[in-house]
Amino acid sequence: MTRSWAVLKRLLVGEPFASGRGSSLVLSKRYAIPLLAVNPISSVAYAPEQVFLVLGLAGSAAYAFSPWTGLAVAAVMVAVIASYRYTVQAYPGGGGDYRVVTANFGPGAGRLAAAALVLDYILTVAVSVAAAVAALQSLMPALQPWREWAAVAAIGVLAAFNLRGLRVSGRFAAGVTVAFVAGTAAIVLTGLARLAAGEDLTAASAAHDPAEDQREWTSAALFLLCARAFAVGSVAVTGVETFTTRVRFFRPPRGRNAAAAITTVGAATVALFTGTVVLAFLVGAQTSATGADALQYPLIAQLADTVFGASPAALWPIMLATAGVLLLAANTAFVGFPQLASVFAEDSLLPRQLHKRGDRLVYSNGILILAFAAALLVVLFGGGAYELIGLYVVGVFLSMVLSHAAMSRHWRRVLDVERDPDRRARARRARATAMAAVLACSAVLVIVAFTAVRRGGWIAVLIIGGCYLLMRAIATHYAAVRDEIELPSGKPQLPSRSHAIVLASSVNLPLMRMLSYAKATRPDTVTALTVNVDAAASRRLVAEWDRRRIGVPLTVLDSPYREITGPIVDYVKARRRDAPRDVVTVYLPEYVVGLGPQKGRLSRGYFNWSTSLLHNQTTKALRRQLKYEPGVMVCTVPWILGESTEPPPLRRIAK
């Protein structure tokens, strides 16, 4: 079984990499900007559509608010981007939101930010892959009934790709990102230019008559709908925080180069998002999660179809680039989350296993957890990005609120000690920018709390709360373990004496091996122990023991109720009570079925992995009970069936 799993693992993952094969990645701004721009730029593929999906609930008349909603979202993006520019310069080590919050608010707030980031990465994969499938669906409509399973398959492929330790070429990622930006910009600029020239551009979905879907909306209800559209549209700001964790990718001066990259990517994202919203409003594009086929096409596909006259030569490259940039965004989460989980594990917030690299120099456990969680959410929400956005916004903006609030406190501390006028003026600007970002992100978070909780937002709260409590419990456990195992001051106290107890049921080769190992450790006393559950068998064992002249005393324990483990455990406890400073080592036999060529009767294939159920049950029971006894060590001595060699002659044991 073990060998079969090893072969399967090699086929799926590949041969292991040596530790020295890992290398750091340092990029110039020419490649770092498009490579890191994948996450924020990819949000343009689905964020504008979210605005129209929500406003469409009130009918086409509500689309009149879309430009103003888009401008409000753009204002949030500008505030967040401006604040992150100062963050990467203040923390050039690339700490990210978790490090920033922990450094300024302490470990409690840091755990909350860490829990929000966990959800952020999971939803980055789920939303990006779901949106990529939707983009491909516009080219292949037959994919629609299978969209959630297509998304799950894509997640599996990305996970396998990363488990093998493969990396996306920086030039390839940059090429896909540039292709998407160029395609989207071509749609916006060409569409606005044709409208300015007086051409009549009308989206095919504009012909939809929403009268049957409309109902009376009060002013208050319409205001809440616009607020909700603003909140879900603010998902366009996601991905900017990626730069705070990847500052080390830039060449020195890292902070300044990262700030320049954020400015460039942020400006492009704001321009593309705003232009897409305005163009969609001008051509009358409509969207619906459950309406006619024309309404279910992604907004990007509708605009490309409208601007370029339904030309496949334009639609296919643009939508393939859209799907490509979204899959790359999901892939960056597969790269970033395991590394972040490793940081959390190093800080005792997650199990230590997440801090270890696998055979291919990747954090395999983190990749598997991320893939499973993202695939589960995709299936639960039917593979639609619209259904997942509410959860996504909660995680993203909670971490952003904490991060920018922490930066506000950071700049206040700088002002408390800084005396240089120029630096004080810069710190004041940075603090004002951070406060503006806090207010903007808090507004989005509050709106989502009121409008998206019933639409699955409570799941986000449940996941974040569960992660926070789990991290707190793990941190408390690891702290207690550290305190308990820490070496005390002074010379450590050694045990007074050492006693070896060997479990004997019959005189055979495994028993002789246990006795030889026990005597090799040179304990103060060696005792063989057996339990009398069958008087005749016990008499035969004692007689054989005396006949062999084994130089180790044999103690026979009575067991009126034919129990084996109880008397042995009671005997060991009694030895410990009589001498609490002594150490007792109990030697137990363990029969192991060999995996190699068998000898003798075992070569017939009768023994296989299932035969382990026929052995070692007493050993397992004793090991379970004795491991909780202080000062008692349990040593299992294996005997590999069909492969073990004979121990030293019995006369040597007797000596």
From TrEMBL:
One of its GO terms (cellular component) is membrane. It comes from the Bacteria. GO terms for molecular function: transmembrane transporter activity. Pfam families: AA_permease_2 (PF13520). Keywords: Membrane, Transmembrane, Transmembrane helix. InterPro entries: AA/rel_permease1, APC_K+_Transporter. This is Amino acid permease.
